[in-house]
């Protein structure tokens, strides 16, 4: 059966609308920003992997966001805007700069060539419910650009459009990076599973 | 096995496919065990990541407080704060009253200081007295026609005081008599003004810079005795003057 080859970029456009309730249509900064506090902290901690840094990062984020709230255009995605501030603030910190330098991303930024090469067979990886610790360990080992995109997509359940706003990347790059991140995640998990089964 | 549909896997798992593309993909899944297996694995991992990472780290209450401080709305006056607000108003009124009292006090002190200045400048003058005489019957008539009021001077016989003389002085643009008395080597000024000219509350023994200023009122005249002697001696002079005043000439 031969079907027309799907264009990934076009497909993503269909779901570009941010979910209802996540746009900054109305309300004060406080009313919009407070509900994001706990998830934002969780995300900051996953980025920094350090409690104190996460606390400082969240506080700085709120201070920056409040200061820049005038530049936030109502009707656009407030959550993506906030996560973007967290992420950019972290990247401009010393540990953020170090973390961002861990993986070369040049090749994926070059358009079509960036589409993921699928070489492994993901069906071989099946996880049990008790594997939470393994998943956490793998997430922690994942290079920052992969970790953040997986968290935004799988944990925060952001749309590709929101991720593109948050990370400041074109949609095509979001998709290719997400695919590479998942491949890397799968590889880490597979290695851990192998080690665990050897130990048994 | 690689399937060209594999590129739709992420979009499908993340709910990013259009309904049409989604339907096509689901149709393909029925025919492709490889894609079906990959989908299962991918969804499992996505769910696993979500449950492993969600609320993994909880913000401390202290951070919530710090952030609330950063973004908190400006404080508003509500009824909850009414008791505190009333207290604040009361405190403010107290401050205003205290300030008024404090501002009034230096006025009295200023008058005392001015009298003291008159006394000291007279003593420092080469001619401290316009009329120089120890005889009260010489000094008192000298003021006639020079002042709009008359006064009696005490007989100092048998007292430690002696009369030195007198001069015309001005206080707050009002003319008055300044009489100089001696007590040993000390000199005492007795000022006499019309009531109302000297806005100085009668007060026995105000101390200023080591001087005693004793003021009193008597029959429409205001007296002030200023000197660097013991307050008791100023008081003794005052009693002599008061007694002389009562002896109508």
Into which percentage range does the β-strand content of chain A fall? Answer: under 5%
N- and C-termini, Cα separation of chain A: 44 Å
CATH superfamily descriptor of the largest domain in chain B? MucB/RseB, C-terminal domain
Biggest protein-protein contact in the assembly: A-B, 60 and 48 residues
Beta-strand percentage of chain B?
15-25%
Q: How would you explain this protein's 3D organization?
A:
- The complex is a heterodimer of chains A (200) and B (249).
- Chain A is mostly helical and 200 residues long.
- In chain A, 61% of the residues lie in helices and 0% in strands.
- Chain A has helices at 8-13, 29-33, 37-48, 51-68, 78-92, 94-100, 132-141, 144-155, 160-167, 171-199.
- With 249 residues, chain B is an alpha+beta fold.
- Chain B has three domains: 1-56; 59-104, no CATH class; 125-246, Phosphorylase Kinase, domain 1 (2-Layer Sandwich), CATH 3.30.200.100.
- Chain B has a seven-stranded antiparallel β-sheet with strand order 1-2-3-4-7-6-5, with helices on both faces.
- The longest helix of chain B is centred in the middle third of the chain and has 43 residues, at 82-124.
- At the A-B interface, helix 1, helix 2, helix 3, helix 4 and helix 7 of A face helix 2, helix 3 and helix 4 of B.
Brief characterization of the structure:
The complex is a heterodimer of chains A (200) and B (249). Chain A is built from 10 helices and no strands.
Element layout with pairings:
The complex is a heterodimer of chains A (200) and B (249).
Chain A lengths: L7 H6 L15 H5 L3 H12 L2 H18 L9 H15 L1 H7 L31 H10 L2 H12 L4 H8 L3 H29 L1
Helix pairs in contact in A: 3-4, 3-5, 4-5, 5-6, 5-9, 7-10, 8-10, 9-10
Chain B lengths: L8 H5 L5 H13 L1 H21 L7 H11 L10 H43 L6 E2 L3 H7 L19 E10 L2 E10 L2 E9 L11 E3 L2 E8 L2 E7 L3 H16 L3
Antiparallel strand pairs in B: 1-2, 2-3, 3-4, 4-7, 5-6, 6-7
């Amino acid at each position: 059966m031969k079907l027309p080859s799907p264009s990934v970029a076009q497909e993503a456009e269909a779901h570009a609308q941010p979910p209802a309730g996540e746009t900054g249509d109305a309300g004060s900064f406080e009313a919009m920003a407070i509900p994001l506090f706990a998830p934002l902290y969780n995300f900051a901690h996953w980025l920094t992997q350090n409690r104190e840094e996460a606390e400082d990062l969240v506080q700085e984020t709120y201070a920056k966001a409040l200061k820049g709230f005038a530049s936030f255009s109502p009707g656009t995605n407030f959550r993506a805007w906030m996560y973007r501030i967290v992420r950019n603030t972290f990247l401009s910190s010393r540990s953020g700069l170090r973390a961002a330098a861990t993986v070369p991303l040049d090749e994926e930024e070059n358009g079509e060539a960036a589409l993921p090469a699928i070489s492994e067979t993901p069906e071989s990886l099946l996880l049990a419910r008790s594997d939470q610790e393994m998943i956490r360990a793998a997430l922690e080992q994942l290079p920052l650009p992969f970790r953040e995109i997986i968290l935004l997509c799988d944990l925060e359940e952001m749309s590709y459009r929101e991720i593109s706003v948050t990370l400041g990347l074109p949609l095509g790059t979001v998709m290719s990076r997400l695919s590479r991140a998942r491949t890397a995640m799968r590889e880490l998990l597979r290695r851990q599973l192998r080690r665990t089964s050897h130990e048994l | 096995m690689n399937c060209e549909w594999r590129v739709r896997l992420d979009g499908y798992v993340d709910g990013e496919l259009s309904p049409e593309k989604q339907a096509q993909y689901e149709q393909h899944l029925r025919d492709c065990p490889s894609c079906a297996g990959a989908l299962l694995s991918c969804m499992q991992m996505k769910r696993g990541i979500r449950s492993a990472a969600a609320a993994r780290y909880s913000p401390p209450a202290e951070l919530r407080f710090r952030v609330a401080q950063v973004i908190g709305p400006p404080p508003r006056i509500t009824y909850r704060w009414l008791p505190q607000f009333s207290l604040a108003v009361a405190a403010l009124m107290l401050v205003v009253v205290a300030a008024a009292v404090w501002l009034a006090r230096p006025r009295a002190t200023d008058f005392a200081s001015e009298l003291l200045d008159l006394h000291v400048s007279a003593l420092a003058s080469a001619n401290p007295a316009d009329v120089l005489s120890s005889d009260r019957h010489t000094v008192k008539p000298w003021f006639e026609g020079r002042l709009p009021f008359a006064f009696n001077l005490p007989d100092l016989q048998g007292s430690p005081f002696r009369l030195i003389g007198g001069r015309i002085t001005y206080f707050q643009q009002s003319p008055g008599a300044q009489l100089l008395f001696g007590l040993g080597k000390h000199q005492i000024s007795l000022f006499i003004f019309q009531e109302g000219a000297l806005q100085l509350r009668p007060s026995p023994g105000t101390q200023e810079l080591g001087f005693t200023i004793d003021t009193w009122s008597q029959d429409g005249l205001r007296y002030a005795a200023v000197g660097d002697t013991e307050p008791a001696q100023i008081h003794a002079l005052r009693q002599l003057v008061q007694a002389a005043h009562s002896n109508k000439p």
